[in-house]
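[Meeting: bench + compute handoff]

Bench side (C.D.) handed over the final construct sequence. Compute side (W.E.) agreed to return the predicted structure before the next meeting so the bench team could plan truncations. Sequence as handed over:
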Amino acid sequence: MTEELAQYAEHFPEGGRVRVSVPLEDGGVFPEWGVVASLERDLLQVDLSRDALPEHALLEQGQTLDLGLSTKTGGMSCRGVLVGEELDGHRLVLRLIEDVLPFEPREFFRQDVYLPLDYRVPPTQFPDDARMRWEERRREIEFAAQSPEPGEPEELEDTREEIRARLEKRKAAPPIAANISGGGVRLNISEKLMPGMLVELSMYLPHPQRMLEIVGEVVEVAPLPDGVRFSTALQYRFIDEADRDRLIGFITTRQLLQLSQMAPRDNFEPPPPPSPWGRRLGVFLCIAFIAAVAAFLVHANIVKREAGEKWEVQRVFDEGIMKFLRQQR
């Protein structure tokens, strides 16, 4: 905690600018800027730049808000829980809950998928307990992927087979429609979860064949028109960075595949080659045009001679001779 407090003090100085992502009723966010009014340990007060937020802004106590910072080396991000409002909503009071990390734009590329995905609410909502359970599941995946060593105790082999059977069961979970990114996932589920709840996620990626174990935090719940399901958005709270890279790689591959299958907007067809008769006609017309021009020039010279006018070449020649003779005198 001491290290986190030092981070907060470094990145949230009094008077520093902070970008606050304000949730909207339609599920989007409104980017608002504010100024740090004060920071006491992990309690941050931010004065918003606007006197009033958009009409559809949705700010409620307990919401988790994304915070952005600009530095000389790039963008940074953090998250805080809204614990209060002051000055008629002009000042937000936030409890910072995460490390200050580099901003990763690639985490926000999203893709609609249909994948085997299982979610579970852990026995407790303590972050430390959820993290321990998450780390244990990751160790199980690594252990199950190992080959038995010579002379390995039978108990270890039985444990490995038991874990493999459990993982295969998770892989066989019914596929569900989801919208995923490197930073979170949105599901349409029948169970109504509450914002701030921690949820265990098991997601199977077919390419590469990998089971991902993630802990997400519910950030938004909205009823769907069918009156039965809820659109539930979760932001990853605990995820291995290698798994995040695999997830982003899977999303990128799917998007490239979709782009490659899109029909081109313009179907360019080269003009058909001219027929032999067309080429002959073109040559004939060209020769006829040259002959007509030549005949016109010959006729013009004849007319000028009959009228006593000298041909241009002869006139230039005569002028040159006369000039030469004058110079000789």
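W.E. noted at the follow-up: The helical segments are 2-11, 127-145, 154-171, 241-261, 276-306, 312-328. C.D. will use this when planning the next construct.
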